[in-house]
Fold:
Amino acid sequence: MAALLVLCPVLALAQTATPGPGIPLAVAETRAARIGDLRYDLRLAVPALVTVPIEGTNTITFDLSAATEPLVIDFATSRDHVTRVTANGRASAFTWIHGHIVVPATALRAGRNTIAIAFRAGDASLNRNADFLYALFVPARAHLAVPVFDQPDLKARWSLTLTAPSHWQMVSNGAEIERKVSASSATVRFADTEPLSTYLFSFVVGDFKVETAARNGRTMRMFHRETDAKKVARNRDAIFDLHARAIEYMERYTNIPYAFGKFDFVAIPAFQFGGMEHAGKILYNASGLLLDESATQNAHLGRASVIAHETAHMWFGDLVTMRWFNDVWMKEVFANFMAAKIVNPSFPEVNHDLRFLLSHYPAAYEVDRTPGANAIRQPLANLNEAGSLYGAIIYQKAPVVMRHLESLIGEEVFRDGLRVYLKNNAFGNATWADLISILDQRTPTDLATWSRVWVETPGRPTITTTLELDGDKITRLAFHQATEHAQQLRIVLGYADKVVPLTATVEGSRVDVPRVIGMAAPLYVLPNGGGWAYGGFKLDPRSRDYLSRSLPDLPDPLTRGAAWVTMWDALLEHEVPATQFVDLAMAALPRETDEQLTGRVLGYLSGAWWRFLPVTERHARVDQLEALLRQGLVTAKTAGQKAQWFGALRNVSATPPTTAWLRRVWEQTETIDGLPLAEADYINLALELAVREIHGWRDVLTTQFGRIENPDRKARFEFVMPALSSDPTERERWFLALADVNNRRREPWVLEGLNYLHHPLRAAASARYVAPSLNLLWEIQKTGDIFFPTRWMNATLSGHTAPEVAATVRNFLATLPGGYPPRLTNIILQTADDLFRVAEAPGGESAGFSAGGGAGPSAQTSGLENITIRAARVIDGRGQVGADQTVTVRGSKIARVGG
Ligand SMILES: [Zn+2]
Structure:
């Protein structure tokens, strides 16, 4: 039962005659109702030079129910990109409206139609580099490059023909079936695809090497640009094995064979995401596939997970696709859900319940505890906003919710329901309602109510524990909440010599656990101790006191993990002081035996260190912390474990002896026993040394630049370098250049530079860039890829703790222009939440620059128009106080910088 908007004919007609920008829902629904049996015959010529446009034709063939209205074809370039439109064999007039080609009704006919468009391709979604390009069309960016119906429920068979320099590789969804080679170019025809949504169509052209392997009778190919042959050799078999295992598992679980014929994948340097599931041709971020020797266990698990995730999409997303992007979360949650099932047996030494806990709950809470939290399922009026749906709620909360659902109705019932769902909708589209109606028939549970609370409402429950004692006996144990989130609590009662696990189901506002009455008073009660329940857990004071002193004594890793997640919440809620949290983490680390927990605690420690610990307290602990981390580095048993410790040490290092030692490591005059360092490690070291402004920092950067052999990493380093300069004007030039969209195309490069620009050590000097960054956010959303707005804000804000910066963000939120997208407001509220918590803490000493003993900056904002900022003293006291500078911002553009 699809929740389709019912359109009145007048509105539908208006939408097809004068469509708005992007892909409005009404346009998509009208088209989906009119068009059937769609085919694209797409021909593109890719020139050798990146500056020369790509010319092409697309011949679109389809059945049309009636020729009474004009037809909207999406092509968000400009009018002069359209060379010629032919409708049913005749040159056709057309109108150009808001990035659409509108073909008049008179050129159409009921039944079969053929429209051929000759065009110059737009470059925005083609990721063109000097010697390679890749088409990345998710969520609705195909029409930024080629004319199509850019909506997921108009699936088409694609016939692609590419012409490109003959020494380049070409790969697409279909297998290569014909190749004609001339002197300098080759023309390749690819096999017709199965019916595919536009966002799943892609091609890659350029200078790539190819690895081929056969697994289970299937030949797979890996395309890559890695120059380190040993690295490729070390990784290739594992990568092919992981794909083969994932395919095999999915075929067994779904009872449906892999549907897309051949199976290729491409490792792209600095790819925007972990991976993208184009049917028959997955794109990956190269750094996630080709691991260094020192890769942690987490990195290995991460690789296995992303491979399983993308492979699972071949069923969930590619074979059965959401009707509209409001249900994009479904394909993501099932891909993650299946990935966990696929990966776990391959890592028997790993505690998978702990891994699930650590990889989902903390990231989901980072969004769900904030006032900017969004529901898993969100309404979406136009696909040009689809990018802002993605985030931790889809990737981390939804899998928790889905695991709860599986447990609620039973594993087999759940799997059988999914099989029916996939079989009924193969090569088509479906909605969340379609799945819920299949599952609802198989369970007595009221899934509609469950879905309304967990899937369609934002936020998490806050569950408060009440523990009452009479002497040494429990007289009452209860949990209550203000919301209606029904779920099972897997509670742990801890004693000196044992733990007592129990379950209770919270429904409505409270649950009492009468069976514990009369039992001995526990040391602690942890309502999420079994790593299951989802929410913010307010511990009873006795348990909180015990855990904030004795958490490392907990014997079970899963319970320890749940306790850490809860203590982090307690830190954010100011129930546990930052000093106590940091001391607890420092006491726990030498005793921690689980590699996953070591990584998590190191992460929490770094976060608390930079963000929540006052500067004076940092100074008081830095010698001890560095010594502890170096000791951890020495005693860690594997290279992966050592890499965790080394990463943390590099991150927090502050004393001259430690930075001098790090410099010797970077100079390669000193080695670390058992930890081989790769090019990426030396790059990170150089950047961390530079941001600390060690003597000769510029030589470190230029020497490192000279050392880098890989051309992609070299280009990235060159881009990031100015953001590391100790010269504020050099950094400013780098930042201001980001106002030009062309300087933001390589998003991971931009984010790396921003992270260093806003490094906590430079927070005082970089506060001035927060307002201009906020002003750019809307444009970032319009021009960037789906994760960029959130990541842009995270990179901008995560180094800051000062009340002045919090005030800048508050001021921006208070003076938003009319029509500002609510989802962007939410992104700001999500990413500023930690900043608000630390900067606006009642009576607390901020870790920010106002507590640093230096002259704080006077970051004054005067509305949206002009931002006047006096250059500030940098936190370590060695920076200069600069002249007054004015950054003038108009609308979303930085207009001028001057004294
Ligand atoms: Zn995915």
Q: What stands out?
A: Residues 309, 313, 332, 335 surround zinc ion (CB under 6 Å). The chain has a mean pLDDT of 91. The longest strand covers residues 35-45. The radius of gyration is 28 Å.
